[in-house]
Write a structure and sequence with these properties.
The chain is an alpha/beta fold. The protein has helices at about 5-40, 45-80, 85-125, 130-140, 140-150, 155-175, 175-180, 185-235, 245-280, 340-350, 370-375, 390-395, 400-405, 425-435, 455-470, 480-485, and strands at about 300-310, 315-325, 330-335, 355-360, 365, 375-380, 390, 415, 445, 475, 490-495, 495-499. The chain is built from 16 helices and twelve strands. The longest helix has about 55 residues, at about 185-235. The radius of gyration is 31 Å and the shape is elongated. The two termini are about 30 Å apart.
Length: about 500
């Protein structure tokens, strides 16, 4: 999985600030012990208190700035994502916001919980061995109990359910006119309601565990401090320990547990943020290349040479070896999730292979000028992206009379953002018309163009596809036999491997 840019430097800076805070804790505790035993206010105490305030404020300012910068980078990354639009929208809003609890809350607390207890224990061993041994034995109980309770957290499940809900809800909203037309709106409303209830249940379970863990951590920390304080009181009475040492231990002991309690309190909220961060960094994004080579016009020969694509821990393609001859029409078949759309994304240059290469007429695709390559390609995705403007502008100047028969304004009809005002079939035909307008393109890529269409619209799209294919190299991702019949060869993909 890609690493968040600047994270190592961020952790190093937090460590430097943490060391400074740990030093001020020791000096402050010694100054308080001197003050409480009649020694008066020392300059060292005032300096330590002021320095601790400044270091804490600096840490808060630094974490806020880094988090804001990191979230801006994550949003820019998601704008190039090639994942489901609904899932991407949820990640841009809720997902990026959730990372703040991990970056600005949990990570600084974890750094302090690693540095301050060690500094406190080192000082306690020089002051009183018995108290140091008690703190050494009890400090690990807080992360131990926190880990035992945290193992049952549902924050990851909660985030997964939220992304599914966001993606499905966006799809339902987009297709609401079609759903109402076919009487399926109520059924989808029930599905959305069930998904929302599942997310709410997961949230309640997570909150229950979070409240329980907070109670346990506070109880363990309080009892641990009591185990240190009670013996100190008895030893102070019988004179086996000086008042200054006793006050020093009582001032230092809570400081050993405080960072661990703070980290434990932020653990459950940070789990959701960490899960969202991992998903955002692993999300497939469009590759921005700067190749300069151009290719000859005409139908290209395409060779996949041991091409693999990994999205984080997910393997989309695995060492694919495939040759598509110039002018050949290839049908890609296979179950959903087998890597067909990923293969098209690699061929379009939107996704870079994790390993291997794609050769176009013997030239590595990565070295080609991306803009000229796309100009030589006619592409019809599963969901064509339409923009605000007239129907003629969206079809690239291509007239498609069977689309405008049910639109009162014809080719001057205004299309809303993402194709608002058009049915799913009309949007697909507009996308096909746009592909047909690419008369100079030597490569045709169609990603299930007849999916979710009725028989009449499917026949129209198939007729347009037959017009588009002659004299061009074509890759057709197909589920239906009618589209597969247009190909000269069929290749099956299964779990990212050609069969």
């Amino acid at each position: 999985m890609p690493v968040l840019p600047g994270l190592r430097g961020y952790l190093a800076a937090l460590a430097v600030l943490g060391v400074g805070i740990a030093v001020t804790v020791l000096v402050q505790a010694d100054g308080l012990a001197t003050l409480l035993t009649g020694g008066g206010v020392s300059v060292a105490l005032l300096v330590a208190v002021g320095a601790r305030i400044l270091l804490t404020a600096a840490q808060g300012l630094f974490t806020s700035r880094f988090t804001a910068s990191a979230q801006a980078r994550l949003r820019r990354r998601l704008l190039d994502a090639t994942d489901d639009p609904g899932v991407t929208a949820t990640r841009i809003t809720k997902g990026v916001d959730a990372t703040a609890t991990y970056l600005a809350g949990y990570l600084p607390a974890m750094v302090l919980s690693a540095l301050v207890p060690i500094a406190v224990l080192a000082r306690l061993f020089t002051a009183d061995l018995t108290s140091a041994l008690i703190v050494t034995a009890t400090v690990p109980l807080i992360p131990l109990f926190g880990a035992l309770i945290g193992a049952h957290t549902k924050a990851r499940t909660q985030w997964t359910l939220l992304t599914r809900l966001g993606g499905h809800f966006l799809d339902v909203v987009r297709g609401l006119p079609t759903l109402k037309l076919f009487g399926r709106a109520q059924a989808q409303a029930r599905v959305v309601r069930e998904m929302a209830d599942a997310h709410a249940d997961a949230t309640i379970r997570t909150l229950k565990v979070a409240f329980l863990s907070a109670l346990v951590l506070e109880l363990v920390a309080t009892l641990s401090i009591a185990l240190v304080a009670v013996p100190i009181g008895f030893r102070l009475l019988d004179g086996s320990i000086t008042a200054h040492t006793a006050m020093l231990i009582l001032a230092l002991a809570p400081e050993a547990y405080l960072p661990l309690r703070a980290a434990g309190a932020k653990f459950h909220a940070a789990t959701e943020g960490l899960t969202a961060l991992k998903e955002i960094l692993a999300a497939p994004t469009a590759v921005r290349r700067s190749g300069t080579k151009t290719r000859r016009l005409g139908p290209p020969e395409v060779v996949f040479d041991r091409v693999s694509v990994h999205y984080g821990e997910t393997r989309a393609l695995s060492e694919v070896d495939l040759t598509i001859r110039s002018g050949e029409h290839l049908a890609l078949v296979g179950p959903s999730g087998s890597g067909k759309s990923t293969l098209l994304a690699v061929l379009l240059g939107f996704v870079a292979p994790t390993c291997g290469r794609v050769l176009v007429d013997g030239v590595d695709l990565q070295t080609l000028d991306h803009s000229s390559w796309l100009r030589d390609t006619a592409w019809l995705p599963q969901r064509p992206t339409l923009f605000r403007g007239t129907l003629m502008e969206n079809t690239g100047g291509r007239r498609v009379d069977d689309i405008v028969t049910d639109l009162p304004d014809g080719y001057t009809a205004q299309v809303g953002e993402l194709g608002a005002g058009l049915s799913a079939g009309q949007r697909q035909r507009v996308g096909l018309a746009r592909a047909l307008s690419r008369s100079d393109a030597g490569l045709v890529l169609l990603d299930e163009p007849t999916a979710r269409l009725d028989a009449r619209t499917e026949a129209t799209v198939l007729a347009g596809t037959k017009e588009l294919l002659p004299g061009r190299t074509a890759v057709l991702v197909a589920h239906r036999p009618a589209l597969t019949a247009l190909a000269s060869r069929t290749v099956e993909l299964n779990h990212g491997v050609t069969v």
